[in-house]
Amino acid sequence: MSFGECTITLQDVAYQLGLPVDGRYVSGFLTDFHVYIDGGRPAWQWFHELLGVLPLANQIQKFAVNCTWFQETFGECPEGADEETVRRFARAYIMMLLGTQLFADKSGNRIHIRWLPFVARLEEMGSYNWGSAALAWLYRCMCRVANRHVVKLAGPLQLLQSWIFWRFPGFRPAGYDAFSWPLASRWSGYNPGISEKGPRVQMARLKIDLLQARDFIWMPYSTPDVLQVVHPEVLEPRHTMLWWCVTSLIYFAVVEWHQVDRVLPQFGGVQPPPHPALNIDFLMSQEASERLCP
């Protein structure tokens, strides 16, 4: 921007989505996935054991299952279901949440079975760094879409949209003044019509070209009305100290860099002349094949 750099950080992930930003890496060995999963057991056999049912062949694309199958099969947990049935529905719901919201691909309608090792141990789901992984995936998707030949954007787009609305008041839709926790839920009812897409895009581009420093809110989370709805655990020092860290963000083979040293005003700091941006092209070159990455 003409007034300085700004970006989505782990702080935004914590406030907007309420996700943990520390914990175990969301990663794993996906090469020959069917061989190495859970000690050599066939992946689809494990799928059946964890979810109690297998999709038909026409619902499977490589190691991904159509989202419609999940919705039709696990749309509503039966009343009075036993504990094992509830756990199966919980696993399916979490896989849908991960595959269509936080780590969606451009299709938006497939769920990869890479999540089996995670949902197999439901009690450990909270020990993973989901916030860092989601931000890594968003960074990578935004990098990809910068290529003029790429026409669709994947990733946690609700995070991107909410970050824009919270920090750029001029882009906010009218009528969404009330908010609760997590902050991204503020815009849950927002659904712009496609009939005005052309003029809306042109107007947004013009607004971006005319942006001034006064049009950006550096610290939107410091107001009392925001602090009173935030979950108190988010503000614990063991979490907040990570917002300032210049570190790697990891999501399977995706490795991105959290360069908050270039956006210190977002944390109430004064921005000195930044060092040259870290070149991580060598990390992106490691993301070789589709079977290794999302």
TrEMBL record:
Looking up InterPro entries in the UniProt record yields: AminoTfrase-like_pln_mobile, MAIN-like
Protein name in UniProt: Aminotransferase-like plant mobile domain-containing protein
Recorded source organism is Arachis hypogaea
Give GO terms for biological process.
meristem maintenance
- Annotated Aminotransferase-like plant mobile domain ranges read 1-277
